[in-house]
Specification:
CATH architecture of the largest domain: 3-Layer(aba) Sandwich
CATH topology of the largest domain: Rossmann fold
Structural class: alpha/beta
Bound molecules: 5'-O-[(S)-butoxy(hydroxy)phosphoryl]adenosine
């Protein structure tokens, strides 16, 4: 029997009060995610239950019980407090998927500070703009990443502490650098958790838009109410499960469902901190007897490419339930997974801003391959007309996805950017910026984004950020960045550039420019192709028309170019 039971029964009279009740939370109480994910589980008598099974390079393994998680997060919290970090200060977590990332996340929350996780593959420029925007007070990182912080430290007088968790004592520490070692620190048994309440800020995740710098999505401790229940009903997590969320906590899936959801339910989860390969993934599932697996379409498509025969080399019979998020999950991938794993990947749709799952497929529900499923109970969702913003009654007609605000995990604002936050609401609807249609049975079908943001392998990349970085390269005069179709990643970054006089177009320069972006921004943002052009299509007032270049890449009708010539 699945946790959700019958969807139709659940949506009748649904109220988030149900989740509050299960979590024994009452309006006005203290609510701290760090406490819920460790101390509470221990109080329920599950302190000895494994919380984290971690595997790094070369098969090195570390295991932590819920009591270990409680102690480690206390210890990190205590250390941070000792440095003078207090409630609402921003603390960046800039690490690979090492245990300190997961434990540090809870430690930051326990002192009431705001956790700002950033993807460890970010280059110095990507890192800088996000630390600058948040005026981050401390960053917790590893030796291998500290060079990127050093490169920009002079520009960040507000950054008081650079904490290195794996310092070997060999290299000298530089200005503002401190060492913290979980293994050598005295475990803190008694810890005073900061009395955060529902609206106390918890997590700041950065997400990319079409224009402007990345936006800091501000979440609060009350988000737990949604994350707990969606993890319980959609991921169907049950007491004996071994859960694997493949996402990195640098992104929202990796925190909402790679830390908060499972641990608030007292579920054992495992983490693989090595690169992707079909063999290493299947081996990991086999070895840990993974039962619930939450992953992403790009990974599933890569597994598909590796073939069905490969699956047979492993014993994956432990798998009970599979779910996916981040980008469109094509029907073929759903059908294939059902064939080879004996159960389909169930699609879920949500975003950094929504904090928890919005449109979902759950166990027991009829799966329509290619569809995102139906609104989670308590979520009022529709599609609205792109011009009038009125709900569309007609099944099959494409419009903008729209949600009635009010679920617990919804972002509270964009950090220092109330104006953009407000622009996301029209006629009382929150518009996530995607297009879809609803069929006659209430299933939602994704048709595309409503902006120029590139979704590469489930990661959003802002064309604006890449264009700006390209302009910093000595050879580039002008640039335009669009998505290009890709079999596995669905979209990859493509750049069109015009060169400054004296620079020779050619493969050497292409490689140099690619590397320049990879180091400055990240491997995700690196253009997979650079096309040299003599000039870029522009509107009369000189704005570059990405849409035209995009249409050309996707072999779409360009339509009436006279309207494109006008500024919008
Ligand atoms: C955007 C959000 C929260 C998960 C990680 C991504 C796209 C997300 C789906 C899906 C089609 C999807 C949307 C959305 N997206 N899930 N199931 N089908 N598209 O979070 O980085 O904030 O990206 O990813 O375009 O707006 P994110």
């Amino acid at each position: 029997m699945s946790n959700i039971g019958s969807y139709d029964e659940r949506i009748k009279d649904f109220s988030w009060a149900l989740s509050e009740k299960e979590l024994e939370y009452r309006d006005g109480d203290v609510i701290n995610i760090g406490w819920y994910c460790s101390d509470r589980i221990c109080q329920q008598g599950n302190g000895d239950k494994p919380a984290l099974i971690w595997e790094g390079l070369g098969g090195v393994e570390k295991r932590y019980t819920f009591n270990d998680v409680r102690l480690a997060s206390n210890t990190i919290g205590h250390f941070l407090r000792g440095l003078g970090i207090s409630a609402e200060d921003r603390v960046c977590l800039f690490m690979d998927k090492i245990p300190e990332l997961y434990l540090g996340f809870l430690g930051v929350l326990k002192i009431g500070a705001i956790a700002q996780p950033l993807f460890s593959a970010f280059g110095d420029e990507s890192l800088y703009v996000r630390l600058e925007n948040a005026r981050t007070k401390a960053i917790i990182t590893q030796r291998k990443h500290v060079g990127k912080v050093r490169k920009i430290v002079e520009k960040m007088p507000w950054l008081e502490h650079i904490i290195i968790v794996d310092h070997d004592g060999k290299k000298e520490l530089k200005e503002r650098e401190t060492v913290f070692s979980l293994e050598n620190a005295d475990p803190v048994e008694q810890f005073e958790i900061h009395p955060t309440t529902a609206e106390s800020p918890s997590v700041l995740h950065y997400t990319s838009g079409t224009t402007g710098q990345p936006k800091g999505v501000k979440h609060v401790h009350y988000s737990l109410i949604s994350q707990y229940l969606t993890a319980r009903w959609v991921l169907d997590l049950q007491d004996g499960d071994i859960y694997w969320c493949t996402a990195d906590p640098g992104w929202v899936t990796g925190t909402s469902y790679g830390i908060i959801g499972p641990w608030s339910l007292g579920i054992t989860q495992c983490v693989l901190d090595t690169g992707f390969s079909p063999d290493s993934w299947y081996k990991f599932i086999q070895k840990n007897r993974v039962t619930v697996w939450y992953s992403a379409p790009t990974a599933i498509r890569s597994l598909m490419k590796a073939g069905s025969e490969k699956v047979k080399e492993y014993d994956l019979s432990s798998l009970r339930h599979l779910a996916s998020v981040g980008e469109p999950l094509n029907a073929e991938a759903v059908i294939w997974s059902e064939k080879v794993f004996g159960r389909p990947f169930l699609d879920t749709y949500w975003q950094t801003e929504t904090g928890s799952m919005m449109l979902t497929n759950f166990p027991g529900m009829k799966v329509k391959p290619g569809s995102m499923g139906k609104p989670f109970p308590g979520i009022i969702a529709t599609v609205v007309d792109v011009d009038t913003f009125e709900p569309i009654a007609e099944p099959g007609k494409v419009g903008l996805i729209a949600f009635k605000p009010g679920w617990p995990a919804m972002m509270r604002t964009y950090w220092n950017n109330e104006e953009t936050y407000n622009s996301k609401f029209i006629n009382g609807w929150y518009l996530p910026g995607d297009r879809a249609h609803i069929d006659n049975e209430g299933y939602f079908w994704f048709t595309g984004r409503d902006d120029d943001v590139i979704n590469t392998g489930g990661h959003l990349v802002s064309p604006f950020e890449v264009e700006s970085a390209l302009l910093e390269h000595e050879a580039v005069a002008e640039s335009a960045v669009v998505a290009k179709p890709d079999e596995v990643n669905m979209e990859v970054v493509k750049a069109f550039v015009t060169l400054k006089p004296g620079f020779e177009p050619g493969p050497d320069l292409e490689l140099k420019i690619m590397n320049f972006i990879r180091k400055k921004l990240s491997p995700l943002a690196m253009p997979q192709e650079i096309e040299y052009v003599d000039n870029l299509p522009k509107t009369r007032s000189g704005k570059i028309m990405r849409r035209l270049l995009h249409a050309r890449e996707w072999g779409e009708e360009i339509g009436d170019t006279s309207t494109l010539e006008d500024d919008e």
